[in-house]
Design goal:
Number of strands: 0
Order of helices and strands: HHHHHHHHHHHHHHHH
Distance between the termini: 94 Å
Strand content: under 5%
Number of helices: 16
Helix content: 55-70%
Bound molecules: zinc ion
Radius of gyration: 24 Å
Length: about 325
């Protein structure tokens, strides 16, 4: 029988294409499967319970956050609602980071369609949902800043951002993209209005803690000038006790602040105010007698701090940084 070479050629190329496509499919599923094997088994059992409790067992915040990300993505992919997940945040160890992880998961499962992520969470999500979207967009499309800015503009005016922390979200994005405190704070500094600048810097420093931890942060603040220096110290001294809140021991609750003596200029040190808030969250009233253990020169700062707890979400007043530092950070 005469072999028709053209037919053989067609059959062979069809077979090769099929084998190639099959290997791609299997390879992808093996990859995805390997990554999620542990999560899948556990999440199958526990989707109706608090699926995040296994993450809360991690003492290190970065590991806890990585776990939240994995569980949230799996839960959303398997039909869990945003509201259902948001309800679990209050009983988790790090509600804020958990909300980050939900925002990230929604962006991924929406195929990076920014319009969809807003619709999916029109009124039910806190700003942290948008922090997670900023982080993930920075991973997905670091060069497409304008699309992210346009997305923010669909739900809040950057000229009047008080309601939705728009510049704060941009700050998260700047640091997530640039991985550089210098560059990111400089971008915030390009904003004229001081309140916008502060909100942006707040997002930058928050993201710095998430990505790099507290190491060397105060040293970095020391090299800046003007309102950037003022914002850097003020915001980081407020945020780091909240970041390290798990490590606060009640037999020496002020240790974190006391350890930072000399690293933060007194007028810009919000550590004691922040500790007072963190402890309040643990249902303990700050005790002014604790300030007896504090060095003389810091005692007033300690007393006034414990009397005026300051949370993550408090907006800074016009006095931040203050004229004492020669920097007026308020535009009014
Ligand atoms: Zn956040």
């Amino acid at each position: 029988m005469k072999i028709r070479w053209e037919v053989v050629l067609v059959v062979v190329s069809v077979l090769l294409t099929l084998i190639f496509l099959l290997s791609l499919f299997l390879g992808r599923n093996l990859l995805v499967g390997n990554k999620n094997i542990a999560t899948k088994n556990e999440a199958n059992v526990a989707l109706s319970q608090n699926i995040y409790s296994k993450c809360d067992k991690f003492n290190e915040k970065d590991k806890r956050f990585a776990c939240y990300k994995e569980v949230s993505l799996y839960a959303i992919e398997n039909g869990k609602s945003i509201l259902g997940l948001m309800e679990l945040t209050n009983s988790s160890k790090s509600p804020h980071l958990l909300e980050h992880s939900i925002g990230r998961a929604i962006l991924i499962t929406a195929n990076y369609d920014l319009k969809k992520v807003r619709v999916k969470c029109a009124s039910s999500c806190s700003p942290a949902y948008y922090h997670g979207i900023a982080e993930e967009w920075a991973v997905y499309a670091p060069k497409r800043l304008n699309e992210f800015k346009d997305f923010l503009l669909t739900y809040c005016s950057l000229d009047n951002p008080k309601t939705e922390w728009c510049h704060h979200n941009i700050g998260h994005f700047y640091l997530a993209v640039n991985k550089s405190l210098d560059k990111s704070l400089a971008l915030c500094d390009a904003l004229d209005a001081d309140n916008n600048f502060l909100e942006c810097s707040y997002g930058v420093i928050h993201e710095q803690l998430i990505q790099f931890g507290i190491t060397n942060l105060f040293n970095m603040c020391s090299k800046y000038d003007g309102r950037v220096k003022s914002a850097c110290y003020t915001i980081s001294s407020r945020l780091f006790p909240q970041w390290l809140s798990d490590t606060i021991k009640m037999d020496d609750p002020l240790k974190i602040c006391n350890d930072s003596y000399g690293q933060i200029p007194e007028k810009l040190n919000h550590c004691y105010r922040s500790i007072a808030w963190v402890i309040g969250q643990k249902n303990v009233s700050p005790n002014l007698e604790w300030c007896q253990s504090v060095r003389d020169e810091y005692r007033n700062l300690c007393v006034s701090g414990l009397k005026n707890p300051e949370s993550f979400w408090d907006i800074f007043g016009c006095s931040i940084g203050g004229e004492d530092e020669g920097v007026n950070t308020c535009s009014q």
